[in-house]
Amino acid sequence: MTKNSFFLTALILGLFIFSSCSKDDDDTPTIQTKDISFNLTGLEDLGSDYAYEGWLIVDGAPVSAGIFTVDAEGNPSQTTFTLNEADVAAATTYVLTIEPSPDNDPSPSAVHILAGDFDGNNASLTVGHSAALATDFTDATGGYILATPTDGGMDTDENSGVWFLDPAAGPGAALNLPTLPDGWKYEGWAVIDGTPVSTGTFTEVTGADADGRFSGSAGGPPFPGEDFLINAPAGLTFPTNLAGATMVISVEPSPDNSANPFLLKPLVGQAPADAIDHTFYGMDSNAVNTNPSGSVTKK
């Protein structure tokens, strides 16, 4: 072999090796992506400490499908997310949760608000899905009386307290509410001169609720409720008169994102302007007016 032939052979061999290495690099598999988009109504601004997060259920396990917020008008910050194509194709269910922000936990929280199963490329989302709250609250019923049992037996200001009990039942429970899944609690409210004031959170319709900051020193009945006698919030004066006020039962995330009622308000009742203490007043079903809903599409 001549000297020139040797160098030519070496050059060709080097180019072949370089070309082979470059091809191996080019053959590195790339992840294929696919979009999902959603159309949601009825969600509310969660404030700066919480956000919504979507999840795809793939082979029984959750895969994050994007984090977004909602402004004061209910508009999501983002409605389309680009995800792994294989995850999107294999997803059987979509779940929407409420998460802390920032969130250091890669798993979903217990606060599932909407969910739906995919039928082809589409999923309709409801609160009643078994992966959300498992009820739409349309069968909820309730009522209350005005009374102030914690005032030590005084007969004044009897319209300054609300108790969710039925005196004709012994007294007995006045609320008929479904059992909530983990991550949720009920909360009672009296809207006084436009200001919602909590009567306390609860998970059972019998037994005292988790609050009593406005009540007097005497014990109250074993039902959710509150006397508005002390510690009035700014702008209000206690005792008050709840005649004409609106009573609300809300469904709250736990932990709670706000001191005001959450968007889910299955029961609402306005006390008559001439309300009489210890008289039972019913509440109206309000679930269809406050339940969020929506749909998700695989693009």
Can you walk through the features of this model?
Strand 10 (165-166) and strand 11 (172-173) form a beta hairpin. With 299 residues, the protein is mainly beta. It is elongated and about 85 Å long. The protein has an eight-stranded antiparallel β-sheet with strand order 3-2-5-6-7-19-1-4. It has two domains: 33-135 and 293-298; 143-282, no CATH class. The model is unreliable at 1-25 (pLDDT under 50). The protein contains three helices and 19 strands. The protein has helices spanning 3-26, 85-90, 287-290; strands at residues 33-41, 50-58, 61-68, 80-84, 93-100, 112-119, 122-125, 143-146, 161-163, 165-166, 172-173, 184-192, 195-202, 225-227, 246-253, 264-270, 281-282, 284-285, 293-298.
- Total helices: the number is 3
Query: What portion of residues belong to β-strands?
Result: 35-45%
Domain count = 2
Mean pLDDT: 92
Q: Which secondary-structure class do the elements indicate?
A: mainly beta
Radius of gyration: 29 Å
What proportion of the residues is helical, as a percent range? Answer: 10-25%
The N- to C-terminal Cα distance equals 63 Å
